[in-house]
Write a structure and sequence with these properties.
Layout (H helix, E strand, L loop, with lengths): L1 H7 L15 E8 L8 E4 L2 E4 L1 H11 L1 H4 L3 E8 L3 E8 L24 H5 L19 H18 L12 E4 L3 H11 L1
Antiparallel strand pairs: 1-5, 1-6, 2-3, 4-5
Helix pairs in contact: 2-5
Length: about 180
Amino acid sequence: MRENKRYRERKSIRLKGWDYRTPAWYFITICTKEKQHFFGEIRKGIIGLSETGIVAYQNWAAIPDHFDHIKLDVFIVMPNHVHGLIGIMERPVKPDNHVQSNNPEHSHNPVETRNFASLQDTGINKRQFGPLKSGSISTVIHTYKSSVTRWARKNGYPSFAWQSRFHDHIVRNDESFNRIQNYII
């Protein structure tokens, strides 16, 4: 009972009021459970991927094959975590709709500062976590983590696990995008 209560009281680490389906670039970091080195090791400054690390790399690269509104930029699989820049594209609209584009394909920075200034309280109880929203960053990451975990379990790595959450950072401008890109590289 006590364990269950702790889980319900866990606060969301996402930006309050931000819709994570919004076209933007997101810097994502996903760690393995207890930061175990499931994906390989670094020798002389170069990552040597394990079999699980190769699958983690291949599945990350395949994300756009499963989500037509997702674009990837640089990413890297490290011994115990994955870093990557993921862009959510604006979904196609009918020609008669006149919608301003914030498409990441047109710029590294589809998010304007005014979007953050106008965030409002959603009125959602902080203890409530609803179902994953189709097309959101959470759905993409959940699907990615599930695919790697499924492969690991089927292929003799029963102890493989991820941390339950992931870290995201909404990229707000080109300077930030370039800094993150260089950090990943």
